[in-house]
Each structure stands twice: as structure tokens, then as C-alpha cells.
Amino acid sequence: MIPLVIGLALLGAFALMLRREPRRLANGVVLLFALLFTLLGMMDLDTDSVVGFATAMLIILSPLLVLVLAGLLMANGVQMVRREGRRVANLMSFGLGVALLAPYVLFVVAVISESVWFATVLASITLVVSYISFLLVAFLLYSFVYLRLPYERGMGAIVVHGSGLIGARVPPLLASRLDRALEVYRAEFAVGNHPLLVTSGGKGSDEAMAEADAMAGYLIDRGLPDTAILREDRSATTRENLLFSKDLLAACGVSRMVLVTSNFHTLRTAIFARRLGLDAQVVGSPTAFYYMPSAILREFVGILFEHKWVYFGVCLAMAAVPPLLVLAVAVIPGEQ
Predict the structure, then answer these.
(1) Which residues of 212-237 are buried (b: 16+ CB within 10 A; e: fewer)?
(2) pLDDT per position as a tens digit, 66-108
(3) Span 173-221, pLDDT tens digits
């Protein structure tokens, strides 16, 4: 009964947080805790049963699920390299798959060596991996929720974020964003609104033209009038996309906007927009399935990096617990 009460209370807190400010990762953390407590409460188990059930799941399912996940991530990494080229970003899913196998390797070493300190290192790694995994699940859960939140109609502008060109050609990932922006524009136009559409992206060293110009050409070819388009052709990062588009729209007297990016990038873009003080909501466009694991991992790492010292401090504190416990046991005198 108590877990159910806690879960429902956390769900209420999540609803209030969502209403107040939906552009926070903390919402996902609260939602995940709420769902976990609610699930335990609905199972109506006593404390011993809850502990026994959780222990059984950890012992039986966790190793199997982790091994399966590691295999899938490594396979996706190989696929990413074949399709997108051998770059660090494309190796992230493969690297995570290898990292997930590390605790098992350490476990085997600890068993063979019968070393307390190997077991201690294993415990430290497990705690840190569990913490990062919890944050990743919260990120995935809330990204799924945020994508399904309706944006408010009547925005003054629609800002499409660039994602790179192939020479002067708009590739599928960017085309998907532009198609989604056209959907939003036409939906606004159908109810009598006339928002500006901002194409945001500068010229990369391997691109034949600025992304903003190529994006504008793509939209004009599909029937959008040139007079409805503003080109922001200086930005090279998401942060610059937002700042330069904000300045461009401020000159036109527009402050409220909807941002269009890929579905995997929506939550991080929304968090950026909140920190920069933009009156903006975010919608996402579809992405090829094979591209999603690496892209989601990049987004998650990017969010962690924004508060790297906080997360590093928590990980360091958790990793220190097992060795401190071992040292504490070692200095406690045995019973006489």
C-alpha cells in the first residue's frame, strides 16, 4: 500500500512539474520513480516479497538482458560504420556495447583470482553503471513523453534546425525536418495564422552552400513562398541555431516560436531553449531506425556534459562507497 501511495504522490508531482515547465530532464527522473513505485504498489506485495521479486529479477533477467543489449548495440555500431562512415560519433553504440560487458569480465577475474579488491572494483563499476543507466532510462522515457506533448498553435515563427548537407543536396535526415516544418506551417496557415519560417544553418567546410539556403530552396520547391522564409546562415551548433534565430526574429518583432528538429534531438533542444530564455516549444521529425541508437546516445552524453561536474561528482561518490566499506570492515576489530 505504501509504495502505491508514494507512486501516486510522485505522479501528482510530475503533473505539476510538467505543467510548470516541461523542458526539464528532472521531470523524467520523477516520472520514472513514480512508475516504479506505482508498479510495486499495484502488485500488492509485502516488503519481503518485493525484495525477493527484485532480487530474482536481478539474478535471472538482468545478466541476460544486458548481454542481449550489448550484442544489439555492437551490431548497430557495425551497421552505423558501414552506412555512415568510421567516425567517433558512429562508434558510440559499439563502444557502449563493449562497456556493458566490462562488469562480466571483471566478475570472471574476481572469481578466478579470489581477490577482494577485484570484487570491490566490480561493485564500484556496477554502482556507477546503474546510476548512469537509471538516468538513461529516465531520458528515454521522458523523451518519449515530450515528443507527444502538443505544441500551442499561434506561434509567430517556425525554426528548422540544419543537420548538414551532402555538397549542396539536402540529405534524408534534414529533408525529414523540413517536411515536418511544412506540416506545421500548413496546419497554422489552415487556421488563419501566417508564421515566418526560419531555415537555420551555416556553411560547413565540406558543404557547397549554407544549409539555410539549401533548406530554403527545398521548401520553395514544395510550394512555400519565398516571402515566408527567413535565412539564418551563420550557425554551426544547436546553441547558435537558437541564439541567431532569436536575434533574427527579434528584429521582426517575433518572440514565440516552435522549433523543428529530429525526434531524437527534441528534448535536448527544449532544454537548451529553456536555458537561453526562449519562448519556444519543440516538435520532432521521424528518423531512420538504424540511426536512432547512436543518435540517442549522443544526445544523452550531450545532456550529461552540460552538468558534467555534478554527474562526475555523483559517480565518484558512488564509486567510493565499496572501497570505503571494505576499509571500514578491515579496521573494525573482530569479536574476541
Answers:
(1) bbbbbbbbeeeebeeebbbbbbbbee
(2) 667 777 777 877 777 777 666 666 677 777 777 777 777 777 7
(3) 999 999 999 999 999 998 899 999 999 999 888 788 999 999 999 999 9
Q: Among residues 116, 44, 90, which one has the least CA distance to residue 327? A: 116
CB 309 within 8 A of CB 112: no
The C-alpha cell that represents 226 in the structure block: 519565398
120: CB partners within 8 A, 6+ apart: 322, 323, 326
Domains of the chain from N-terminus onward: 1-60 (no CATH), 69-149+291-336 (no CATH), 157-287 (3.40.50.620)
56 by Cβ neighbours in 10 Å (0-12 / 13-18 / 19+) ranks as: exposed
Question: For residues 319 and 128, is the Cβ–Cβ distance under 8 A?
Answer: yes
**Residue 146: exposed, middle, or buried by beta-carbon count in 10 A (0-12, 13-18, 19+)?**
buried
Contact status, residue 153 vs residue 256, Cβ threshold 8 Å: no
Instruction: Extract the residue ranges of the chain whose pLDDT is less than 70.
Output: 44-67, 84-90, 332-336
